[in-house]
Amino acid sequence: MATALLGGRASAEGDAVAAGSLPCDLYAAGGTPCVAAHGTTRALYSAYSGRLYQVKRASDGATRDIGTLGAGGYADAGAQDSFCAGTSCLITVIYDQSGRGNHLTQAPPGGFQGPAAGGYDNLAEASAAPVTVGGHKAYGVFIAPGTGYRDNNTNGIATGDQPEGMYALLDGSHYNGGCCFDYGNAETNSRDNGNGTMETIYFGNSKTWGYGTGSGPWVMADLENGLFSGVNRGYNANDPSVSHRFLTAVVKGGPNHWAIRAGNAQSGGLSTYYDGPRPNASGYNPMKKEGAIILGIGGDNSNGSAGTFYEGVMTSGYPSDATENAVQANINAAGYTASPPAGAPAVGSRVSLRATTSCCTADYLRHNTADNNAAIGAVSSSSPSADKAAATWIVRAGLGDASCVSFESAAKPGQYLRHYDFRLRVDTIDSGALSRLDATFCPQPSHNGQGVSLRSANYPSDFVRHYEYGAYVASHGGSHAWDSATAWADDTSWVVTSPWA
């Protein structure tokens, strides 16, 4: 079918094709070609029609590559939805579109261990970051703490003091102060090899090494042993807090010269927050870049960060501002818009959560009156007021991740639904990062088409499930009894209803 481009955007009839000349076409035209190009939402070359990413299905361990709808096109999200229907999937590979084989896979242990088997980092849940691009459904890469991707054996990535550029398109509302949500050039042994052995984009509100104006988050550069917002360690006044829902973040560097730029990915241009010499601290001039690629973690596999990645590239050579401005115009034209799951609970609302399994459609998630455990139980208009209150929740911004939600008990103010040894309970939450993540759940499209499913913020494969009337966080077909594959899709799907109390 012929495609008619209207003002740089694909027509409704030619809906497989993304907007205009794509980012890596523009970098090549500027003399700084892409040497790595990663995106789960669209092609980054106008001629690219290959694989974007791979997903692995929990029900049977099968994998499927997700490609584009056509050359230079958007992701075929429908293929993922069909393949993952009734179960959950993880993103196992983010393919490099440059042809150099710089694919991102599960990050191995390094200076820090990850939470997955063998000290590896977790993989991202494949449907956790739904988005619309050019009117097409797609999925980003949702990085929860403990999640990370890496390639320590790359081809063509800058080393030493060689010049390079990079951009990442991120969710500007999803961040934390953990170290470190990075994309870019890192150490090849997953360890801290000293000042200047990294050059990545950082996004978050950590103030440990550097920061800008306001309370954050900031786009900064992770150059190892320092998040730099300008020429100085610590505070730099020209690096502003940014909060665009879709954020374009740029870092580039060459011999004794580097820059930070950023802008709203939905409209407008890029602003330059820093452009000047390398930091006035020892070890950063000349740089000692090693050429690995990381996503969602620090160079030594520090993995306490959170963020969402949609697309990004790394270049050979130091791109001009004009080239980056053209790339930003293309990103604007791509038409990124938020796509929250239908039926997700709104922060500040009071809700009840009804089970959808055929046995239990009159049952609601509630806490027990005899102990702190959560369960499901029948609630109706004739139920005692205490039972109605026990099945009512106040939706709060996620205690461990503000892009998700937490459920405060209406009957026990100040206590929240959380998992502990996989069992759900209602508890007081302390200030520790782990307990706050245990009380945080991320709504996403339901596994059976009814309501939503609620993913654990710190266990990407686990969802809120009822099993033999108890309540757990459960994976599909895992090692525990409550991970049983029988009725898993129904048991992990919940309809958000009006509150009983």
Detailed description of the structure:
This is Alpha-L-arabinofuranosidase B. InterPro entries: A-L-arabinofuranosidase_B_cat (IPR015289), ABFB (IPR038964), AbfB_ABD (IPR007934), AbfB_ABD_sf (IPR036195), ConA-like_dom_sf (IPR013320). Keywords: Glycoprotein, Glycosidase, Hydrolase, Signal. This protein has 501 residues and is mainly β. The chain has 6 helices and 37 strands. Strands 4, 5, 6, 7, 8, 12, 14, 15, 17, 18 and 23 form an 11-stranded antiparallel beta sheet that branches. β17 (218-222) and β18 form a beta hairpin. α1 (23-29) runs antiparallel to α3.
Q: Biggest sheet, in brief?
A: 11 strands, antiparallel
CA-based shape: globular
Report the uncertain regions.
1-14
Instruction: Give me the secondary-structure category.
Output: mainly beta
End-to-end Cα distance, whole Å, is 55 Å
Strand percentage: 35-45%
Oligomeric grouping of the chains: single chain
